[in-house]
Design goal:
91 residues, 2 strands, two-stranded antiparallel ribbon
Length: 91
């Protein structure tokens, strides 16, 4: 039987998924119209390529943020670790 935490995604997971789903949805809408994707932003840089790069940056930044949050949530508090070491529980 799955635990309660595995049945309901954590807030961090929802933030990560939502933060990446919104740029993806806009990217899908841009891909439906070639005229929108071909709009020149700067020189030969088009709106489609600029949006793809933005989406990649959001994915990388979101993943980095999520990994940092996940890693810090599993680290024991410094007072707890010190108390366990003095009691002989952790070496």
């Amino acid at each position: 039987m799955p635990s309660a935490s595995s049945r309901h995604p954590s807030r961090d997971t929802r933030v990560l998924v939502t933060g990446n789903a919104l740029p993806l949805a806009v990217g899908v809408l841009l891909s439906c119209s070639t005229a929108l994707g071909e709009i020149s932003v700067y020189g030969r840089l088009t709106l489609g390529i600029a949006w793809a790069l933005t989406q990649l940056a959001v994915l990388i930044g979101g993943t980095w943020w999520y990994e940092n949050r996940a890693a810090s949530s599993f680290e024991p508090a410094s007072g707890t670790a010190a108390a366990a070491r003095s009691a002989g529980g952790v070496r």
